[in-house]
Amino acid sequence: xxxxxxxxxxxxxxxxxxxxxxxxxxxxxxxxxxxxxxxxxxxxxxxxxxxxxxxxxxxxxxxxxxxxxxxxxxxxxxxxxxxxxxxxxxxxxxxxxxxxxxxxxxxxxxxxxxxxxxxxxxxxxxxxxxxxxxxxxxxxxxxxxxxxxxxxxxxxxxxxxxxxxxxxxxxxxxxxxxxxxxxxxxxxxxxxxxxxxxxxxxxxxxxxxxxxxxxxxxxxxxxxxxxxxxxxxxxxxxxxxxxxxxxxxxxxxxxxxxxxxxxxxxxxxxxxxxxxxxxxxxxxxxxxxxxxxxxxxxxxxxxxxxxxxxxxxxxxxxxxxxxxxxxxxxxxxxxxxxxxxxxxxxxxxxxxxxxxxxxxxxxxxxxxxxxxxxxxxxxxxxxxxxxxxxxxxx
Length: 394
Prior knowledge:
Blueprint: E1 11-14, H1 22-27, E2 32-36, H2 41-44, H3 47-54, E3 59-63, H4 72-85, E4 89-94, H5 96-109, H6 116-121, E5 132-136, E6 148-153, E7 158-163, E8 171-174, H7 184-202, H8 210-232, H9 237-250, H10 265-276, H11 280-295, H12 301-312, H13 319-336, H14 354-363, H15 377-386
Parallel strand pairs: 1-8, 2-3, 2-4, 4-5, 5-8
Antiparallel strand pairs: 6-7
Helix pairs in contact: 4-5, 7-8, 7-9, 7-11, 8-9, 8-12, 10-11, 10-14, 11-13, 11-15, 12-13, 14-15
């Protein structure tokens, strides 16, 4: 296990009906609030009105319409609003995209002499930032308790991760009831995103990380148990609560600290989203079993067999066969959740852009040198191509 520092100081307010605490929280940071939200679902479910009621004595400026893959133009608009209205605190109400946008707004606002996309391209933001408070409405990205964000530049077909010490939310409200209205498609996509965060840290060459791996396996079992329940009964509080907390713990550093290496599937999926604007979790679900199969060999089979044994209760003793069974279980699970498992099902029907996408996936990451199994451009192209058709791994 590598050396690491774990310091994630977000104040988590988890559970039912805690929005009455919002006023006192916001007062700690000031009176002028940038309210950031997405396409309007918080207005349909009543959360928007409840937030405004709690903040009736504050000056509220709204940044609405944050995209599912938040775009740099929206970030720039938010930073401009912050400057024009001397904003004290950013309140993000939504899922990971909304919170990511809020983080990027805080960074761009803190860099007034730089072009917005230049701030994102640096990837690591070390400057001052407005405080961020979140009210989570979707279990997926873990952005409510981490320092990272992913922003899209649609003009250049770039989707880049960035982050910074001062972009960690100060307070996050996690009420599972706010996810009751999330539809089946987004519930499944969010669960796939959680699983992918766990996979990316779990399938790793750093030795002797029993603690991190054990936590990851427990969280994976939690997701695979509770996602089908939430799909069948959207208002099942316990299922939604477990998915929400699993989402937060999957990417707050708990399962990745002490490990090195680069993430493979996220690097590849960011290109799918950058070129085709598909739902992030759906792209990850499609790519993940193909990536698993592509990197499967006698050496990696041991880890995949461990995953199969501890997550899917596979008792096969031959590592290669156990690994194949685990990959098939993963594929079948995503499909059973209603996730489209081929690229044509999400509108990507040919491979004309795969070469340039693969080149960018390699260029914008370290997957060619520092991944679980290093991937070159031709490997990424092959994984994209395999994703065009149904697969069977047994």
